[in-house]
Amino acid sequence: MNGPQDLGGMMGFGPIAPEPNEPVFHADWERRAFGVVLAMGGLGAWSIDQSRFARESMPPAEYLSSTYYEIWLAGLERLMRERGMLEGEPKKLKKLTKDEVASRLARGSPCDRATNKQARFKPGDRVRARNIHPEGHTRLPRYVRGHVGEIARVHGCHVFPDSNAKGRGEDPQWLYAVSFSAHELWGHDTADSVTLDLWEPYLEPPA
Amino acid sequence: MAHDGHDHDHHHGSELSPIALRVKALESLLIEKGYVDPAAMDALIETYETKIGPRNGARVVAKAWTDPAYRKWLFEDATAAIASLGYTGRQGEHMVALENTPDTHNMVVCTLCSCYPWPVLGLPPVWYKSPPYRSRAVIDPRGVLKEFGVELPATTQVKVWDSTAEIRYLVIPMRPAETRDWSEEKLAEIVTRDSMIGTGLVQVPA
After folding, report:
1. Minimal CA separation from B189 to chain A, in Å
2. pLDDT tens-place string over residues B84-141
3. Minimum-distance CB partner of B36 among A31, A40, A105
4. Structural domains in chain B?
């Protein structure tokens, strides 16, 4: 969706302001919010794509005036509300136990998948990012849509977030690193570039 | 626990901010419903607050600087090369290492959220997750770098990597020339978090 999360190329947010010797958490509630979000993710009641979509579904003005853990918290509340988990009888889900934490984190959730499909593009191919505006979750930022770039790497076949976020299955698709020149994206007269990881359905031949 | 000037939630004992109260209520509810094991939650927090951080990535960089076979492996299969040092899993399932050279400077951002290689860098700093960096890194990378005190020659190509999928990027910064005789351990000490994001350069402390 063309939501507030899609920030690339926007202006007016001011300086970066890095904080020297920044602590991991700035308040105890951030620590607890982080722990709650990760522990709830361990139930397996939603995917990472669904949780990203829940966060970016926050009204734009609210998203842009919230801190990152406030956005996480609102996303968690939305996911639970959508599933009727905030009230009534608890759903039968297996909670993450302390003994499982280390091994679950060390394993993570790889999202590459085996496929019989051939990759449509190869390194060096010119491709255009499609000019599409999906209403659901997508990882195709506005600032590359319609622009022509070059396949830099073929990463493999990965879970397709646009489908997975809707609960319509993983629908794995070939994933590519695609490089766009700063001239193509922004009209800048430099050799600089921006590379994004884009799934095959986001791309088409440039002609 | 860090109770520094930033922690505004603990004024005098029980005085909690609205957001702190909201988190506390939610946590209690989730424990009561049997969704969250408090001990698991504490273990998750402790892992990312005390065990996993940029020292991991610094070890990867220092090894890449001193061990040519490891360096080669790292650029061919970063996930496996990094796993060989014990760093795997969540938010680092698919790693790619990017080599900074005099000709090419790599810099990583996530314009859409906060994707960051947790097993090697820990949790991202606030600026990495915030609108100023996420909006500007792709359109004005040299302006961003200047704010971090980094000015690159016009002949150096700046390559920005927007982490839009589950691939996580680790920048391998350039090794300072004056560290030729340094051990891997000593080298690891000067590798900064920002140099592995691409917003900093590694420098020998004066």
Report:
1. 15
2. 999 999 999 999 999 999 999 999 999 999 999 999 999 999 999 999 999 999 999 9
3. A40
4. 21-50 (no CATH), 53-197 (3.90.330.10)
Burial (CB count <10 Å: 0-12, 13-18, 19+), residue B48: buried
pLDDT tens digits, A134-189: 999 999 999 999 999 999 999 999 999 999 999 999 999 999 999 999 999 999 99
Check if B103 contacts A (Cβ < 8 Å). Answer: no
Q: Which residues of B are marked as active site?
A: 110, 113-115
Contacts of A97 in chain B (CB under 8 A): 37, 39-40
Nearest CA-CA distance, residue A82 and chain B, Å: 16
Architecture of domain A28-107 in CATH?
Orthogonal Bundle (1.10)
**DSSP per residue, B19-71:** HHHHHHHHHHHHHHTTS--HHHHHHHHHIIIIISSHHHHHHHHHHHHH-HHHH
How many contacts, defined by CB atoms under 8 Å, are there between A and B?
259
**Domains in chain A: boundaries:** 28-107, 126-204
